[in-house]
Predict the 3D structure of the following.
Amino acid sequence: MNSLRTLRYVVGASFAAMWRNRFTSFAAIMTTAVMLIVFTTFLAINDTLDKMIETLGRRTNLVIYLLDDAKPSDVNALVSRASSRPDVAQVNFISRAEAAQSFRETLTDLAEVLDVIETNPFPASVEIRMLDPSGVLELAEEMRADTAAVEQVLVRADVVGKLLRISRLARIGGSVIVIALGAVTLFVIFNTIRLAVYSRREEIEIMKLIGATDWFVRGPFVIEGAFIGLVGAGLAVVAFVVAYSRIGPTLNALVAFLPIQTETGFVANLTLFTLLVGLVVGSVGSFFSVRRHLET
Amino acid sequence: MIVFQDVCKRYREEVWALHDLTLTIPRDDFVFLVGPNGAGKSTFLKLVTAEERPTSGVILVGGVDISSTANGGLSKYRRKIGIVFQDTRLLGNRTVFDNVALPLKIAGESGRHIRERSMASIKTVGLPHLANRRADELSGGELRRIAIARAIVPRPEILLADEPTDSLSPSAAAEVMDLLMDISRSGVTIVVATHHREVVDRLRRRVVRLDEGRITADRATGGFDG
């Protein structure tokens, strides 16, 4: 019964304290919200960069167009030779029929052209994706030398290689910024709560001296910290979702190669993560901020 | 009963607040601790509340050695002690009632008990009309009385008062001391640290004089100068 009364008191005291110190609480909530907006935005940017790198990595570096009269044994030999290289990630053989089908599916408006000309104008091809694009020119030369099966070799490696290098740097930079920003967010929120606790250090000391247990003193602060963190994160999430739902599709339309995620799952995950960060940082920050004043 | 046995307290290297202090205060006793500033009066009280720990020696309160009690065990012990701090240490942004009720809330008492006993305490110090006023709106004398009300509300076995008449008018000081005398008659052990000669001389109770951390006089019914 006593524990229940104490719990009721602790919860009541935390909200009463927030109301009494409403300006400090408001400042702490707004600081948390601003820091989490910045943090969440960088998480979304980092995710977009990740997706861009993934998309670039999936692109074909080398396309080998085959002679229409190439023997299947020569084509098989070419595919095996390419597949056996350690710097090749993937080799795909596209038959003439598959090439025509792909044309029909990709460019539906022009599909009728194929019906008009009646014959299949597309050559069979072999698409190669490199693990390391640096060896692509050498591979292209090797393939060009295979006159029995190869008609033409198309190399996309230069552009892709450069993009990959830039993206790799961007990914490392993005991760560093997210980690640094995460640390700054934690530091700012933690210190805001610590200041709020510091302004009430005398209250903590008095309560300890008249017989309060550590948990009786700490409880309201932890609940208060959790509430401030959660409300701050809630505000950050609302601001982020509103801005993202307006800016995301516009950016996607303007810059087609930017894979900005607009689906509900991604936003929901980011929302939950931000709320969790607010809740944990707020409550844990309060827990440790009060600890140093409990030694009376 | 409060027993100090060869208690020393050193704050920094070479700064001794108490020197080999040995003193027994029986249950129900009313004791004045007198002496100049820095004599060790406040340190003595802080050692009883375990706000400070002795450098050496043993402190027994109610038969329990509090000099070696772990921090976790102090909360229950402190609920048996009422403290009137020199600067009252009331929470200025709370009402008088909330301040007085705090020890009972800490003890997990029921709402009805808290209301009845807090109001009874506030009545005991003669200020029931101020129950809903914020503490930072009270005068010095009223604050002292409310601090006493908070100290007695958990019905403590021991009441410690550190300079309870400091900066009060003579009449307000007399009222506060009469209040402490009344509480003493209900069986509470009371230790009052003071440097007010008039207060000590008027009540003629046991006086322990401290100087530079040592007991220089201990008289059963003395005046300020012995």
